[in-house]
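Job type: complex structure
Entries:
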Amino acid sequence: MVSGKFSVEVRGKVAVITTDCGENRFNMDFMNNFNKALDEVESNPDIQALITTGIGKFYSNGLDVNWMAEVAKKKQVSELGKFFQEIIKLDNRLLTFPVPTIAAINGHCVAQGAFWALHHDYRVMRTKRSWFSVPEVHLNLPLGQHNISLLRGIVSGAVARDAMVFGKWYSPEESLQAGLVDGLAEPEELLDSAIKFAHQCIGTRGFDRAALKKMKENVYKDVINAQDTMVNFGNYTKLGKPKL
Amino acid sequence: MPSGGISVEVRDNVAIVYMDRGENRLNLKFMADLNSAFDKVLSYPDVQAMVTTGVGKFYSNGIQLTWLLPAALDVQLEFWHKFSELQMRILTFPIPTVAAINGHCVAGGGLLALCHDYRVMRTKQGWFYMSEIYIKGRFTSGMVTLFKRKLPSVDVERDVLLFGKRLSGEECARRAVVDAACEQDVLLDEAVRMARDCVGTAGFDRPMQRTMKEDVYRDVVEAYARVTLTDYVQTIRRNSAKL
């Protein structure tokens, strides 16, 4: 029953973007839809916080590698290059979004999906039966300096080592302990928990949008300015399913 | 089993490099032998992780200063160049690495241990410390970047680097300078267990593991590469004259 749709719902001061695209993998369509949803949120002056979430088993399972393989097959290398630039642009847009952002992680949160969640200000994850990981090392895929420096700013060096150098898979409880997420909630209570986080962050006065955006740009300057080259997909290997 | 000098033992998928030269002080020969041992480790295709350890009271007491400080300028330069290479080799080793710190781990020895992915240290005996503040040693910007990546927090950096604080195995574990501490008689088994835990069921593709470490630690690798060793050696020579 995957609708393939993005929905933008307003609950008082908080906007919720819900993606109902199965594994919620990143391709050009997904990102174009996300940008449109973000435009809708930004254009509403009453919104003081943003929550993103998915439906079903996945928050996001990462890049849409099948779509990328199709593009590569058609020898549209420049389109792939543009795709990677757009990912960074969208990441940076979320990183410096003018209202607080919370990822309500409803399911598996993997690779680009995990980095997407990490670009939010806060993360709340459902308990049990979901993995958080950046397993690129197991897939023979390198990580870019943008994402590396992002993760470094959030977790300790030891967690950065385990998560990136060794591609560790984290349960929700382990994710909380490692500092990858800020809170856990039972699946039925996930959205309410995220909304509570949002209200706590907003406080009584909220934030001036321009000031908040500028502050994020300054605080995350190293991440935004990190130099990256295109990821080489020549070594892609199929990822086996971890034991659940 | 260690047999004097630097030797390699293979236990299924884990290779153990024993440093059995007393204080395991670093000089050109020691580093050449250590590199040969690393070559040997990597020559076994079934080896999926490496543990390094000392034998006796020392993991490594640092650089052999009695040899280095009076040495000719070109020898000193060669030493620092090779020492930097060795540190970066360990930092970006193509298989997981565990330092089983069996005893004193000081200055240059501390650097080597910090370059490993994991550290487990014995309890009850042996100190971990960076003595440079006391012997007028200087840290290069490469080393400082390594410390920032590998020491867990700024208060540990302060105590260990600025104030040369000596930490026991227990304190190292408590302050997360090492990943675990245990009794000496189970140290090696614990290190091997940690190595196998990291390897998991599938292990890692060696070139990809190397690449991932080079990417994740790129700021450290680049900082080491940018150090002007000639300037550094001159500084050390000037400082050591004041000792």
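Summary: The radius of gyration of chain A is 17 Å. Residues 237-244 of chain A have pLDDT under 50 and may be disordered.
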